[in-house]
Amino acid sequence: MKKLTLLALVALAVVVMACAPAPTAAPAATSAPAPTTAPAATTAPAATTASTGGTIKIGLLTDDSGVLAIYGPMLERGFALGLDYATGGTNTVAGKSIQVITKDTASKTDVGTQAARDLIEKDNVDMLVGVPSSGVALAVADLAKQYKKIYIAQPAASPDLTGKNFNPYVFRTSRTSDQDALASGAALLSMGKTFVQVAPDYAFGYGSAKGFYDVVKAGGGKFVVNDTPDKSGAIYIPQDAKDFTPYLQKVLDTKADVLIVTWAGAGFVPLFTQMQQLGVFKAMKVYTGMGDNQTLKAGYSFAVGASGLIVYHYDLPKNPINDWLVQHHQAKYSTPPDLFTEGGFTAAQMVVAGLKATNGDPSADKLMPVLEKLTFDGPKGTYTVRSYDHVLLQTMYVVKLTNTTDPNFKFFDLVSTLTPEQTAPPCELTGDYASRCPK
Prior knowledge:
The chain is of the alpha/beta class. The chain has two domains: 55-175 and 317-393, Rossmann fold; 178-310, Rossmann fold (3-Layer(aba) Sandwich), CATH 3.40.50.2300. Helix content is 33%, strand content 18%. The protein is built from twelve helices and 17 strands. The protein has helices spanning 72-86, 109-121, 134-147, 177-191, 203-218, 245-254, 268-277, 280-283, 293-299, 320-333, 341-357, 364-371; strands at 55-62, 92-93, 96-104, 127-129, 150-153, 170-172, 194-200, 222-223, 234-237, 258-261, 285-287, 307-310, 375-378, 381-385, 392-393, 396-401, 412-418. α4 crosses α5. It is globular and about 65 Å long.
């Protein structure tokens, strides 16, 4: 497995988690002011003739009421602003209007599956975008294949979407937890020789734990419990847990050098509060992630001075597209963009770029070959779709946490920028699709 060398990465790496009350729901896609700059060019073929008339319907699957509800409004707001930017404020492409139909999955697989089915069968959407929960995303991916609809996954991080559960109708703008783990490997191995993990008991937790397990094992590290590929050296905790004490006591009993924590959603602050109360931070080094703005403010005061990996923070990229996003998000919502706002924005850019290249034809057989060749500029710089597994190669950042009190959420100093090539995960396609991986 590919190894990375990171300078000054000492205590934290991104695994994406959150805990603060959910912001209010996002408005319709046309609510932001018209952009003042043209959308970024892409390498997709330019349209030669325009198709006019009609409506393109996009089903946006979000979380506004479940354990990952903090992330839903980030996705919705980012997608709305991304459409506004990419269409030059017209909310049309190739002469067709874009209609976004949003449904809440409540972070539950059965609810999300039914919402996606309703979007396809009742609302007649042309494509799907979303969702924060990796478990829901994997179920939606199966429906996309069944109904032959393009599905753009965001912000779900499970590598299985573009790995062992790959199907060609699924693309992603979210990074994978494998990308997190690869970028974190050098730091982990410098912290100790023995490891234990805690992770939520669902698809995101499994994928993240497996990524860290592979990186640590490849570097000669040892997991002191569940040291098998199927368990990934992890103690799995129910996603809706409120009392973490029995699980943390198992962690303390391992006497490992390093605890790797993966978490997402509402339990993050209670988890870390109980870790402090039980003396976990005194007993071992803790390695976890830089989350969203509200979570950082509420639960990261113990980590000031530490460094780690983050997917996106509004104050890091220095380019005109991110400037546009920050300016318009601040004007509309009186707050800067958050952790997954960029991902929603990028998903909208991908949708519009594909539709421009197909003259507004949203069918999978037209969009698939276009998206597989797509390179475009967005809030984090240049993004490239990897044609064989549909992973989106993208920039990530190593930062140092300097405070958790700045009123504008300026919590970090930039340590280093990781290029898309540095964070590119291995191809993990299996079965009938394994031959797509480069030799």
